[in-house]
Design goal:
Order of helices and strands of chain A: HHH
Number of strands of chain A: 0
Number of strands of chain B: 0
Number of domains of chain B: 1
Largest sheet of chain B: none
Low-confidence stretches of chain B: none
Shape of chain B: elongated
Strand content of chain B: under 5%
Strand content of chain A: under 5%
Helix content of chain A: over 70%
Helix content of chain B: over 70%
Oligomer: heterodimer
Low-confidence stretches of chain A: none
CATH class of chain B: Mainly Alpha
Chain lengths: 110, 206
């Protein structure tokens, strides 16, 4: 029965590790939620306030939007976890073509 | 193991959404689909950015946009993204009741976002900002409406998922389905981040 006890404790050990990992993940998700709320408030505030010039505010909110997308993709959609190499290629090429498309369309209509 | 068999805490795999070949394929295929969706939305964003000052007969963007309402919609969608993250965490811990609870909250938040958007559109139409009032109107309703359509589709998808799997535990067959829905929902939120930035906030400063 010693062997059985051993596998049991191994099982308990690995499930404990899994629990700790998920707890850390939950904290990460909560932190990124608070960060995204703050980023949203910041971008709304920078547009509504008169103290910041429009050009600066526009650049600022676009940077903030990109940071938010990073949080969503990397943390909430787990793109940073292992086993996401192909998804990374898929979404990266999508973003590349998307940037080209937006640039081209704005240029064409200008 | 049979893929339709209810998973127990003992045999629960680390990533139940990718434990079968079908799950792996769905996971990869869905990410590639999201890459394609990115391009699709980029065409609409590009068109909108090009036409956003061609108001035609309609009112100007800075006159009609109501930032408090947009802010409320943003917070609702962001929170629904968080609740779907909680659902995925519960999925990984084999807590099926908690997962379905969080998904139900996600559904309610999605529906309230839709309600707010419909109210907003009706308000705009009364102000003379319609699909045919100018190039700005056409581009605006195509872009924002397409995103709203995605939210609507997500709500229908989630309702079907919850109804079809009611009373069932997590299996290797339905775990990928739940997981992919969460990915889709995050993507819809990502698109909204750009909509509130590029359409509403940019429209306010001209």
């Amino acid at each position: 029965m010693a062997g059985n006890e051993h596998t049991n404790s191994v099982h308990r050990h690995s499930s404990l590790q899994k629990k700790i990992k998920l707890k850390q993940e939950r904290r990460q998700h909560n932190v990124s939620f608070v960060m995204m709320i703050l980023l949203t408030i910041l971008s709304f505030a920078s547009i509504m306030s008169d103290a910041i010039s429009d050009t600066v505010a526009i650049l600022f909110i676009i940077v903030l939007a990109c940071v938010q997308v990073f949080f969503q993709l990397y943390i909430w959609m787990h793109l940073g976890h292992k086993g996401h190499e192909f998804p990374m290629w898929g979404i990266a090429s999508g973003l590349f073509i998307a940037a080209l498309t937006v640039g081209t369309l704005i240029g064409l209509i200008w | 193991m049979n893929v339709g068999e209810r998973l127990t805490d003992q045999n629960f795999p680390e990533s139940p959404e990718k434990a079968t070949l079908e799950g792996k394929n769905k996971f990869l295929g869905f990410w590639l689909f999201l890459g394609g969706e990115t391009v699709l939305f980029a065409t609409l964003f590009g068109t909108y950015l090009g036409l956003r000052n061609s108001f035609g007969k309609g009112p100007e963007a800075s006159e009609i946009f109501q930032l408090p309402m947009v802010f409320a919609a943003t917070i609702i969608l962001l929170t629904s993204s968080l609740t779907s993250v909680y659902a995925v965490l519960a999925l990984k811990e084999n807590r099926v009741k908690a997962m379905r609870g969080w998904l139900f909250v996600t559904l309610l938040l999605g529906l309230s976002f839709l309600g707010l958007e419909i109210y907003e559109f009706i308000h705009y139409v009364h102000e003379g900002h319609t699909f045919t009032s100018g190039a700005f109107g056409s581009a605006f309703y195509t872009l924002v409406g397409f995103h709203g359509g995605h939210v609507l589709f997500g709500c229908l998808w989630l309702s079907t998922l919850l109804i079809r799997n009611s009373g069932r535990g997590l299996t290797l067959y339905n775990s990928p389905k739940y997981y992919l829905f969460a990915l889709y929902w995050h993507f819809v939120d990502v698109v909204w981040v750009f909509i509130f930035t590029v359409v509403y906030l940019l429209g306010k400063v001209g």
